[in-house]
Task: structure prediction
Amino acid sequence: DTGVSQDPRHKITKRGQNVTFRCDPISEHNRLYWYRQTLGQGPEFLTYFQNEAQLEKSRLLSDRFSAERPKGSFSTLEIQRTEQGDSAMYLCASSSRTGGEETQYFGPGTRLLVL
Amino acid sequence: GDSVTQMEGPVTLSEEAFLTINCTYTATGYPSLFWYVQYPGEGLQLLLKATKADDKGSNKGFEATYRKETTSFHLEKGSVQVSDSAVYFCALLTGGFKTIFGAGTRLFVKA
Result:
């Protein structure tokens, strides 16, 4: 089992550019989540997929953010026209509901710096 | 709305000292409770969990008990090691899908 993987691990971009991050969940997990973590804070929920369906989006996810999970496997998170305030760690997690219980397993994150 | 409050850090201890990191929560219903740990430069790792009242989660010498009456889930370890230095996050799972995290508590363990 390789766990949740994310790519790239680090991204530096200039303000106004578009960036895209990828997340590969644990293979048997049908649920996938994106969180954002800023320095000194806990992660904050952004969005959630069950299979390919995006079921919930946080108000933190502005119109410049879009997430997809086209075949119910990997997911991408795109940020258009990046702003300095987008600088953060973007975490992906996956889970499956087993026996009524759910635990989310996190990837290593993609650290974004917008200059 | 649902929330998690944990003690502010940093917490600095000497090796083999006793550790307590306090965590309280506010939630409707009966959330599952978690402690995650984040080592420098790494993502979150699940440390332990408890899914119902009076459950005790334990792992790697760490323990936490789900106390519904005090809405608490305090993390304890009897004897910390330098390798335990990390940031610890208390969290709850609400609505069946959203994990809500506390702000994190940084632990430094000195040799």
In short: Chain B touches chain A at residues 4, 32, 34, 36, 42-46, 49, 51, 89, 91, 93, 96-104 (CB under 8 Å). The longest strand of chain B covers residues 86-94. DSSP finds no helices and twelve strands in chain B. The mean pLDDT of chain B is 94.
